[in-house]
Structure prediction request, 229 residues.
Amino acid sequence: GENVEQHPSTLSVQEGDSAVIKCTYSDSASNYFPWYKQELGKRPQLIIDIRSNVGEKKDQRIAVTLNKTAKHFSLHITETQPEDSAVYFCAASQGTSGTYKYIFGTGTRLKVLA
Amino acid sequence: GAVVSQHPSRVICKSGTSVKIECRSLDFQATTMFWYRQFPKQSLMLMATSNEGSKATYEQGVEKDKFLINHASLTLSTLTVTSAHPEDSSFYICSARVGSGANVLTFGAGSRLTV
Prediction:
């Protein structure tokens, strides 16, 4: 089955700097890659996603890149702010049999230092 | 937007008792819901896929007799932790796929179980 690895597990950056989180996946059939942000004690919230037919997607300060050949995708946050501090999870999903099962990475705890 | 309501948010029970957690999709129908378990500072581990009107599909290593899932309607899935023991203490989160043909998952607020 699918296996998703995520690095780093923790990341501290100064406010205003950029943060990059990387994930790799194992199943070449995976075709949808969302990123979720989870603040302490709250539910995960989708922040950006990318499908396998696209190499890059951007939404204001957040961008995601996908390299299908290498089976890895990355989250880029620019001009980080203290409110970006949270745990970020990547996931890989495939639509086979209509299941759209998500397999999550191990998470990255991002701390933005003011 | 689409909302998934999950109850209870917190539950404390004695060892050996059963606990039911409800997951409801508000304003949309969810033929498929997913149940995850999250240990402190760890990732979301998929436990099972709940299918409306049919049996749930469990991930490898998840005891189906321990974690009973029922998806009796298009808006409600329940997870029952039977004969709970301290090792079952965890954060359980449900999610539902929003929109036909779409992959986007929206999550419930989670239920923290303490046995």
In short: Chain A touches chain B through 24 residues (CB under 8 Å).
